[in-house]
Amino acid sequence: MTSPVRIAVTGAAGSISYSLLFRIAGGEMFGADTPVQLQLIEIPPAMDALEGVAMEIDDCAFPLLDKMTLTDDLKEGFDGANVAVLVGGRPRDASMERADLIRANGPIFTEQGEALNEVAADDIRVGVVANPCNTNALIAMNNAPDIPDERFTAMTRLDENRAKSQLATRADVSVKSVTNMGIWGNHSNTMYPDFFNAEIDGKPVADVIDEGWLTEQFIPTVQGRGKAIIEARGQSSAASAANAAIDHVRDWFTETPEGDWHAMAVPSGGEYGITEGLIFSYPVRFDGDGNWEIVDGIELTDFAREKIEITENQLLEEREVVQDLLT
Ligand code: NAX
Known about the structure:
The chain has two domains: 5-154, Rossmann fold, CATH 3.40.50; 157-321, L-2-Hydroxyisocaproate Dehydrogenase, Chain A, domain 2, CATH 3.90.110.10.
């Protein structure tokens, strides 16, 4: 047995966490040999509900769960954390435009960045799930000057998984056959799921599936999947988002198989001409030691570049809205 990994989760009494925490405690994020400590963070009105979730976690008697703490205090919650999964945030209500949602969430991530900076472990890694996740991650990163920027990421893994599943269904193959599925840009309906460079059983997707379907059906389906689920279920994606959060963190510490890649929103260093400093989803590879690198040399068609510019522009607009929160 190795020493326990301390995982802080915000929004721990919410819907996504209800599918996430049990899987972390069951060993799905760090494997069957690694004990975990859960540091669960909520806002005061949700602490009673969080107690109820914790009672259920207790009742699972997870052998790998070394310790669990519940708190509404960020410094206590992030203390010594090796991983922080930031799920909690203000949801959008009917009266809110996207800019209002961004402004409502901004201060939450200012505070969380500051608290992480002060008390998290030296090896902290942060994955932001709460929307607008790219810009929330940007705010947290900018308010944590002592934590290396590359430790701040936002989750586009659900989009990768959605895209793979759509392609596998269309080609009538197992989802395992689909590789190299990159998502570019913002986790929003402007994201660009790059089918040109994706492969099915090692062949370019466009050799297996007709391009008309890929451009006219596939892209809007992946971009609009979150909304379609809300319409069908009456609630936003929860179990699939939790599953993607498990994938996001687990793969950050797992060497990516030769030739493949995953989607993760990471701080741009200007790769592929994207504005430096934005939290931008790229195809990335992991070295197995908690480090990622953006895959270089991916060919982008004019079609792809046009789509990527749209999503980059949206992220620039979001950054403008929270400029005063970026130090
Ligand atoms: P819920 O509303 O069920 O849960 C959110 C929880 O966060 C609540 O329990 C609330 O009390 C808590 N919270 C609010 N402010 C907080 C703060 N300052 N500190 C700690 N906790 C706080 O939402 P849920 O369905 O769990 O979704 C959570 C977030 O994930 C939302 O922002 C949602 O938009 C986002 N999503 C992101 C996805 C992605 O792929 N990146 C996909 C799914 C989801 O839409």
